[in-house]
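Progress note, sequence design subtask.
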């Protein structure tokens, strides 16, 4: 039997225009109202999967090590050690985690991988196997000037070095395939947001990460201004939506503040639409899905 949990260790805000790219504000603000600085509310949502012999964590959130100005700019709201607290609500501790899958290495996805001790980042899950796409890791060390601010390499490189030195680093390669040899968890990659971002999925759920960050981004043309190649994102999104539709998977939204996931269907014009939304917990908490 496999159990699934949704974890939300923190909330934050990003610029609404950047989150919706070329989509005019009168359209996107209906679902994502902006504050006085044009920032919209976003979740930092992770997924935990308990298999018979594994406890798998997908992404790690934004962490709690950022300086005050950074926290203010992004309006980060969390407690100290937010990921540890989330895990404890479901009776899981860092030492229990056997596998960590990182969709990509942007600061709001890898920030919870370590904890700061004496001014240095120390692995929070030192015994887990870390799964990262090999080509994305190469890109993250030499990004363009446009997206370099999304990669805090001085923080994550020492952490990844720990997993490499202890033979706990599994390189994911290619456009799609198995994360585990038994085929219980697969992935498909996308390249529009950032090269070789991965989207884990099994026979029930697909973790959409930043290719479909919220339920409002289901429409193929609704892609983020943060995306390095928006046209590629449109194609990637269409492929991922087709996969979810074909396999009847529930999409898990990493950043939607109201809905953690949704089922999709096609309307009379064969357009992908949401069939059923799944509401997020009222507060930062864990949610068991059966």
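Output:
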């Amino acid at each position: 039997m496999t159990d699934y949990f949704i974890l939300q260790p923190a909330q934050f805000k990003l610029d609404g225009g950047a989150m919706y790219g070329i989509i005019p504000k009168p359209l996107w603000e209906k679902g994502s109202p902006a504050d006085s600085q044009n920032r919209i509310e976003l979740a930092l949502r992770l997924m935990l999967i308990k298999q018979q012999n594994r406890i798998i964590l997908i992404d790690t959130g934004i962490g709690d090590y950022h300086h005050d100005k950074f926290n203010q700019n992004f309006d980060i709201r969390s407690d100290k050690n937010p990921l540890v607290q989330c895990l404890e609500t479901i009776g899981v501790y860092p030492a229990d985690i056997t596998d960590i899958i990182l969709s990509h290495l942007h600061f709001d996805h890898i920030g919870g991988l370590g904890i700061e001790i004496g001014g240095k980042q120390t692995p929070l899950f030192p015994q887990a196997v870390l799964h990262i796409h090999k080509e994305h890791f190469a890109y993250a060390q030499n990004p363009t000037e446009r997206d370099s601010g999304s990669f805090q390499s001085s923080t994550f490189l020492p952490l990844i070095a720990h997993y490499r030195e202890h033979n706990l680093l599994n390189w994911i390669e290619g456009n799609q395939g198995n994360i585990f040899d038994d085929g219980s968890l697969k992935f498909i990659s996308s390249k529009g947001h950032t090269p070789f971002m991965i989207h884990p999925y099994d026979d029930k759920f697909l973790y959409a990460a930043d290719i479909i960050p919220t339920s409002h981004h289901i429409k193929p043309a609704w892609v983020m201004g943060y995306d390095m190649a928006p046209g590629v994102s449109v194609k990637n999104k269409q492929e991922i939506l087709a996969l979810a539709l074909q396999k009847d998977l529930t999409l898990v939204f990493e950043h939607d503040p109201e809905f953690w996931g949704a089922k999709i269907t096609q309307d009379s014009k064969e357009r992908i639409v949401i069939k059923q939304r799944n509401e997020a917990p009222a507060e930062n908490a864990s949610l068991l899905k059966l």
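The mean pLDDT is 94. Work on this subtask will continue into the next period as scheduled.
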